[in-house]
Request: fold
Amino acid sequence: MTEIPIASDWCQRWRGRRHSFRHVSEGGFDARRYAVEALPETPAKEFVVGHHYSGSFPSARFRFGLYDIGAGEAQLRGVAVFGVPVTAAVLTRPLPDLQPYVESLECSRFVLMDEVPANAESWFLARSFDELLVLGVRGVVSFADPVPRRDACGNLVAVGHVGTIYQATNAVYMGRATPRTVKLLPNGVVLNERMAQKVRRQEQGHEYAERLLIRLGAPALRAGADPKVWLREALVAVGARNQRHHGVHRYVYRLGRNRRERESIRLGLPTVSPYPKQPDTQ
Reply:
């Protein structure tokens, strides 16, 4: 897996949950060859799970597909997912005057396949924002994780991101989110606190985290067993390790038909300058 260590002129692409990079100097993107359409949940989930390194699909309100229409039959080549974060505060802190989950959403997945030419990201993102604005969305929050992650064998499974695409599209940078300690599984996947809470409380979606841990060697959760105890023992069984995380980078978009509409949306956190350019050291 090739690592691009800095914010640069490289565009990230995906196939089969492995990433690659295209340089902007390649050019080749022709907007006339592509279309952006609303996408049902099933094909969006299949695409994201099949190609994004996380192998998971977040809670989504709106999904948009990037279609290659240049060869006759439309082919799905990218997916943007906008949805519901772990807590409403993720949206209300940076965008306090917008109704969370209705007027503000999180951009939780943005995946383009490796055959999509360089320079497609900004066009796809702009078209998605146009669609969201029609749907009443006025603000979007997105995050970039700058911490590289490796699996238990030392293989790089996630490069550190500084949010190059957000910087290139003039997102407002609002610094880093709260530092925390995360649970890193042997395959390099982070078991975040929201997933852990779903297991402890047996909330909707707990099955995904349980299946993940069982595939890594944890015993199955027996009927009648305390899920809190099971989770604690399962993390030990699979060899999960703690990793200190200094916080993801937070970016915000204000949506509007013109600059005046965009700038009328109040920001609840201070902006930070300049943009970050280096991922965290491993």
Remarks:
- Residues 123 and 151 are 34 Å apart (CA to CA).
- Residues 120-134 form the longest helix (15 residues).
- The two ends are 16 Å apart (CA to CA).
- Helices lie at 41-51, 89-92, 120-134, 164-168, 193-201, 206-215, 227-238, 259-263.
